[in-house]
Amino acid sequence: MKSSEPSERIDCTVHNGYLYAGVWGTQRIEVYDVRNIYYPKYMGYVNTDGNTYGLKVSGDILVASTGFHSNKNSALDSTDFGYGTGNGISLFNIANPENPKEITTIRADGRYYEIGKDYWNVMVVENLVYFSDLYNGLYVYDIKNPEAPIEIQHITLCVDRKSIYYREFNEECTVFPYDKAQKMQSPITSVSVGNGVLYITDELMGVHVVEAHYAKTAEEKESFDFSEEGQFVYSEFLIDGIEVIPLEKGQVFAIAEYGTYYYAGTSDGMVVLDKEFKTVNFMQTHSAVRDLKIIGDKIFTAESVDGIGIYQISEMEITKLGGSALSEPNRASVCNQIGVSTDGKYAVVTSRLNLFILLDVSDPTNIQVVEYLKNGAAYYRNVCQGVNTNKNAIYLTTAAGISELLFHEDGTYEYNQINDTSFYTSTGGFTYARDNQILAITQNGYRLLDISNGMDLTTASEKVNIHNLPLKGVPNYRDGVLVVSYALTGRISVIDIENLEIPKLMLDFCVDSAVDAPFIASDGTIIVPARYEGMVVIRK
For position 220, what pLDDT does the model report? Predict the structure, then answer.
């Protein structure tokens, strides 16, 4: 389902065959007619006064939770009117689903804002709205009269400065209506409703059980008969040379190659495969191996909550050399991707939405944090794909554009934001290409950027499109072949770009799986991790 809206959708709900989607950055709710689920229709949108997050329906009332800033905010400055005042709920009448009408908006108390803490959940049970507003706490409203909701209760979880759970706020942009040096309110992350009791989770302390005489268990969800006329059929892999190979050891996230073996990062650990994709060895890990890179004879892994791992490899054998559970002070970190410098001395892991961690990994037994690199929003696969042999550097992409970590022979490094690259977005769609170039997926096509002497839009090629193919996803390039996999649709595209200005589409098909970053082996075999399905293998 497509609309003209470029911003991201956070949550959605379906009622009587219509889907309502909360849109984040541009503060709105989109409406789709999905009564025929294979021919959805975009019907338009309504505005909200805050970044739209959670959506729930009760009868003909749609309840939306919002946060961050009011749309009356003129700029992202803590002194601006509207800064940190987008927290609240809005009620809409959806009796006519194609034309929702706003009934009322309720604001949470005070101004609350911290970047990276940006989720506001909402639940509706028996005319009661439960609004989880992070640092603001949990609000309960009676909406029996939707034009004049009544606040039933406001619950906050106070953390005194003397508590072991207290965290000091140092960010200048953080706004709270109390003395942050004396206390804080722990962020409420979710609520579940029982009979006469609420179960509340928060980020710092755990689960809280609160007596609430008004609470009733959730109502059963409504049902609706959808039409399936015109169902889209996925490829059944009748193309010569394409097969799906399952693995017994969990779901597959990443692939690398060393000598005559492939190494697969899975939810259970690392699987070693021969060139016929037969399992010859397995190393179990405590957490999922979400990504792996091989430099020389070492494997560098991103192992979710366990951080980074470094392993020695010899043929099919794997020996762990060291690892480190990484966290920014007072924050847990989850490592989903890793990048390694060409000389194998430095690594970068994506940690959370707006943080990279730069590491000195020259001694695997003593991994050191070099710097916490703050950045704009980074979602998935934000370290450049492919093989970099021309420059001792790592490239990263975020909502702010492309950044370069350049490492010098004397052990120093530079962290440079590349000018005028913000339209390459934060979806991780770029890969090393030939001759000191990066190929970046953008606007349904690709551009090439020269990285030999820094780069900006002045060094970018013209955008290249491939027939009518809407090119989206994570790319990888090797020897004139470009592979792009798009998790949302399961689409895999293989393109001959030996002539970069005149691409030739070789294969384009969909699989019923959330495909991950593609890998191209030394012999030209293409391997696309496909999570629970295993691997999609395309032989040259």
Answer: 60
Token pair for residue 116?
């990276």
Residues (pLDDT < 50) of the chain are 230-238
Which DSSP string corresponds to 495-507?
Answer: EE-SSTTS-EEEE
Cα-Cα-Cα-Cα torsion 13, 19, 22, 27, nearest 10 degrees, comes to: -150
DSSP 337-399: EEEE-TTSSEEEEEEETTEEEEEE-SSTTS-EEEEEEE-S---S--BPBS---SSSEEEEEET
Angle CA 138–139–142, to nearest 5: 145
pLDDT of residue 231: 41
Fill in the amino acid letter for 479: D
Per-residue model confidence (pLDDT) at position 259? 94
Scan for tokens 């890998």, then name that residue: 519
Structure tokens at 2: 């497509």
Nearest to 336 by CA among 283, 380, 385: 380
- Global model pTM greater than 0.85: no
Burial class (CB in 10 A: 0-12, 13-18, 19+), 427: buried
Residue 234: predicted pLDDT:
35
Residue closest to 53 by CA, chosen among 12, 109, 97: 12
163-167 long-range contacts, Cβ below 8 Å, gap at least 24?
165/204, 165/205, 167/204, 167/330
Query: In angstroms, what is the C-alpha Rg of the chain?
Result: 25
